[in-house]
Amino acid sequence: MKPPVFDYHAPATVDEGIALLARYGGEAKVLAGGQSLMPLLNFRLSRPAAIVDLNTIASLAYVREEDGALRFGAMTRQRTIEFSDVVRRRLPLLTEATALVGHLPIRTRGTIGGSLAHADPSAEYPAVLTALEGTVVARGPRGERTLRPADLFQSYLTTSLGPEEILVEVRLPAMAAGAGFAFEEFSRRHGDFAIVGIAAMLVGDGERCRVARLATAGAGPVPIRLRSAEEILERDGLSESAIEAAARRAEELVDPDSDIHASAAYRRHLTRVLTGRALRRAKATMREH
Ligand SMILES: Cc1cc2nc3c(=O)[nH]c(=O)nc-3n(C[C@H](O)[C@H](O)[C@H](O)COP(=O)(O)OP(=O)(O)OC[C@H]3O[C@@H](n4cnc5c(N)ncnc54)[C@H](O)[C@@H]3O)c2cc1C
């Protein structure tokens, strides 16, 4: 199918983009990589009066290291992130998660800002943002605000971004040198959205764990930080029994819905199995510095 008729605007600056969004009073949509928006338009599931194309705003694509964090312009392509040396060194969990997003042609167009703004519950980036305690910066007619994952993600495909706001930057604290990490997911076919995914990061040595981070994809309407599973590891260490206890706790912490892809019970089961797998692999990659 073809998309419905819409006005098309290609602003040169973010401020121009915000002014256009304001002019359409909530009836305009921002276009980033188009990998989710274009199918929605073609199926006529979305019928905006106008498209405000961010692809012409060159200043929105960058990766910068600053104050112990990596900052990504919202229009940074997933492919750029996948092959970035600084991301591989400072945020290897993000490199690994990026390779799981669809297929390379999709990642060549898809952006980090688009993925977070779209808020698909099965997407990898929201889980990484949650596990690593990142933030996003949104700019609108009333200025800028910084949002933590719990403030950003509200429900399936729903964020707290206003219709006149543009997500402009994503900030992720660099991982500690030697941190162990793994993104484990299960999908029916390579490149499909995950049924469930688990982002894990561990800091420690041997069986000692100073910091554990765990977050889900696909186990509920928003990514879930598995804090009380993390606490088991920080208290009891990384023995096989502690990992198994954390995995069982993870299963208790999620409350997924059933849909055409999987039942709620299967998603809960996957949460336990994938948490265990992610922790074992993260432990194996951990180095003390
Ligand atoms: C076959 C296929 C498989 C895929 N598999 C996966 C997968 O496994 N994992 C995964 O995570 N994704 C997957 N995707 C989705 C893809 O990664 C998209 O890149 C991503 O969901 C949206 O990013 P985008 O830049 O293309 O955004 P767009 O499609 O352009 O926009 C998506 C939504 O976000 C809004 N938006 C975009 N940017 C901003 C911004 N800066 N500020 C405010 N609002 C904004 C748009 O208005 C729109 O509502 C897949 C897509 C396809 C087609």
Summarize the structure.
The chain contains twelve helices and 13 strands. It has helices at residues 14-23, 37-42, 78-82, 85-90, 92-98, 104-109, 112-118, 124-131, 149-152, 227-236, 240-253, 264-285; strands spanning 7-9, 28-31, 50-53, 63-66, 69-73, 135-140, 143-147, 153-155, 158-159, 166-173, 180-186, 196-205, 208-217. Helix 10 (227-236) packs antiparallel against helix 11 and helix 11 packs antiparallel against helix 12 (264-285).
Could you explain the architecture of this structure?
This protein is an alpha+beta fold. 36% of the residues lie in helices and 25% in strands. The protein contains 12 helices and 13 strands. The chain has helices spanning 14-23, 37-42, 78-82, 85-90, 92-98, 104-109, 112-118, 124-131, 149-152, 227-236, 240-253, 264-285, and strands spanning 7-9, 28-31, 50-53, 63-66, 69-73, 135-140, 143-147, 153-155, 158-159, 166-173, 180-186, 196-205, 208-217. The strands form 4 sheets. Strands 4-5-10-6-7 form a 5-stranded antiparallel beta sheet, sandwiched between helices. Strands 1-3-2 form a 3-stranded parallel beta sheet, covered by helices on one side. Strand 6 and strand 7 form a beta hairpin. The longest helix is centred in the C-terminal third of the chain and has 22 residues, at 264-285. The termini are far apart. The mean pLDDT is 96. Residues 29-37, 54, 74, 101-102, 106, 109-111, 113-115, 117-118, 120, 123-125, 161, 166-167, 193 line the site of flavin-adenine dinucleotide.
